[in-house]
Amino acid sequence: MTNNSAGPDEGLADVPAPPGRNDSDDDFLTTVPLAWTPGVAFRDAAVTIGGSPWTVTSLPDDVLPLARKLHALGRVGAYVKTPEEKRAALYLLDLGIIDPVPHGNGPVTDVEIVVPVYRDWDALDRCLDSLVAENLPIVVVDDASPEPFATAIRDVVEAHDARLIVRAQNGGPGAARNTGFAQTTAPFVAFVDSDVVASPDWISRLRPLLNDPMIGAVAPRVRPDVQGDSAIELYEETRSELDMGAVPSRVVYGVPVGWLPSASVIVRRSASSNPPFEPEMRVGEDVDLFWRMEEAGWTVRYAPDVVNHHKVRTSLKDFSSRRASYGGSAAPLELRHKNRLIPARPSLTGLGVLAALAVGRPGLALGIAGYELARQRQILPPRVSLPVAAEMAGRTIWSDVFWLG
C-alpha cells in the first residue's frame, strides 16, 4: 500500500512528564528477571561503586538481601516475588545497579514498526526480511528517493506486504521517522534504520521491559555487520558509532552510554513529543529525543543482551562523510542541552597529580593523593570502609590522568 500524502513537517512539542509509579505499578517486576549490572562493584557486601548514574552508594539495610542475592547470581538473574523484594528492586533499578534482562513472553501485538529509507532499496530488502518474523505492522517511509530507487523501494515494500509512505520532499531520517510515527496508532513504535538486520525476536524480548511505566524507550545493541577484512570494517568492528557496548545501562549524563542511536529502538508513544524528532536536525535528532525524555523524568534503557546488526559502509568517502556528519551534530545539541557534551570534568586533585608527575616530583604527587584519600573519607557515607575510600581516591585520580594525560 502506498500513500503519497505526507505533508509538511510540524513543529516540535515538549516531551510529557512520566506518570510516576504507584503501589500497583510494581507488577511489571514479575514479568522479567532482574540481574546484577556488569561493572558495578560490590564492596563490603554493602556498598556499590558504579551504576547509572555512576556513584558510590551505601545500600539501605532493607535493600541488602536482594542486592546480595542478585550479585551472587550475576547475569543469571532472578524474579522478585515479595513486596520487600519489589521495593528493593525499584531502588536498585533506578540507580542502574541492577537491570531487567530481556525475556520474551510470547507474541507482541501493541507495537508498530517504522523504517525510514532513502535510495538504499537492497539494504531495505534485507531489513524487511529480518522484521517480518514477528508479524507486526510495518510502515516504510521513502524520504523522496529519486528514480530508479523509488520504484525499487516500492517493489520491495510490496513484496513484504508492508505499507509505504512517500514523502514529497527529502527531510532526513528524523523527518521521515516523524512521518511514519504520524501514520501509526500503537502505544509503542519501533524505529529501525533501513540498513539494519534485526534479530528475529528483538521486539518480543524488549517489549516486556516497557511494562515499567517509567521507561520511555529501550534499545538493543547494534553491532556492525562485518562481511570482510578491510581496514574500515576492522575499525568499525571495534569503534562503531552505533555500538554502545556490552554493558546494560540507563541513559544518563556521565556514563559511557550517555546517548542512544535510533538505528533500533522501541519508543513509548506517551513518552514522546509529537512529532518525536526535531524536524530541523538531520543528524543528532535521536540523541536529542532521548535526552529530552531523560530530562523530562523518563527512564531510557540500553539492553545489549539483544543484538541487531547494521550495514558497514566500506568506501572511504561514505565512511568519512558519515563521521563528519555525526560530528556536525555537536553544536546544535550543545545549544539544546547546555554542558551535556563536556567530555571530561577533571578534579583539582587529578590536575595536581598530573602536574606533579610532569615536573618529576612523585613525592608531591603522593601527597596530593593522600589529600584525595582524606577528602573521600570525609564525603563518603560513614559505612564506607577505608579500603573502599582508598579505591575511590585511586579511581578519581586515575580517571583524570587517563583523560588528560
From TrEMBL:
<feature type="region of interest" description="Disordered">
    <location>
        <begin position="1"/>
        <end position="28"/>
    </location>
</feature>
<keyword id="KW-0808">Transferase</keyword>
<keyword id="KW-0328">Glycosyltransferase</keyword>
<comment type="similarity">
    <text>Belongs to the glycosyltransferase 2 family.</text>
</comment>
<dbReference type="GO" id="GO:0016757">
    <property type="term" value="F:glycosyltransferase activity"/>
</dbReference>
<protein>
    <recommendedName>
        <fullName>Glycosyltransferase 2-like domain-containing protein</fullName>
    </recommendedName>
</protein>
<dbReference type="InterPro" id="IPR029044">
    <property type="entry name" value="Nucleotide-diphossugar_trans"/>
</dbReference>
<dbReference type="Pfam" id="PF00535">
    <property type="entry name" value="Glycos_transf_2"/>
</dbReference>
<dbReference type="InterPro" id="IPR001173">
    <property type="entry name" value="Glyco_trans_2-like"/>
</dbReference>
<feature type="domain" description="Glycosyltransferase 2-like">
    <location>
        <begin position="113"/>
        <end position="226"/>
    </location>
</feature>
